[in-house]
Amino acid sequence: ERSANGAVGSMGFLAPEAGTDALSPLSDLFSVGVTLFVMATRGNPFDLVSDGPRSARMRQLPVELREIVHRATRRDPRERFGDAREMAVAVREAVAGASFQPLVERAMERSVGLAEAAATGYADG
To answer: 43-91 pLDDT, tens per residue?
Structure first.
């Protein structure tokens, strides 16, 4: 779907600022956080968006992963991770030794690559 300012994405995955001119690479981190939530819980992104940290599905996550999803999906972009690398490090530390690590790491590597490509596009204008 396309927002009023031309941002493209799926409802539930778009950052709150997607309908404004305030889009940045931090907007992509919001989407990565929602994607991580959906992958880890097999839930619906609207479970996270509507209920936030109180979501029953959110409470299913290990506390470390829950904190990552919560930080990545904060309404204020300045309260999110500073960049995709910082988020990737946090995820790797949180899932070290977990049974779902390979799935999450593959998805994060792909997401970090996409976020870095998007950041380059923003920087280039």
So the answer is: 878 777 666 666 777 787 888 888 999 999 999 999 999 999 999 999 8
What the block records as the tokens of 68 is 């990552």
Q: How far apart are CA 118 and CA 43, in angstroms?
A: 26
Determine contact, residues 31/63, Cβ cutoff 8 Å: no
Reduce the DSSP state of residue 98 to 3 states and report it: coil
DSSP state of 80: S
CB 32 within 8 A of CB 84: yes
Reading the block at residue 91, the tokens are 């995820």
Is the pLDDT higher at 9 or at 5?
Answer: 9
- Cα separation of 2 and 18, whole Å? 9
Closest to 99 in 3D by CA, of 68, 72, 67, 65 = 65
DSSP, collapsed to helix, strand or coil, labels residue 44 as coil
3-state SS assignment for residue 52 = helix
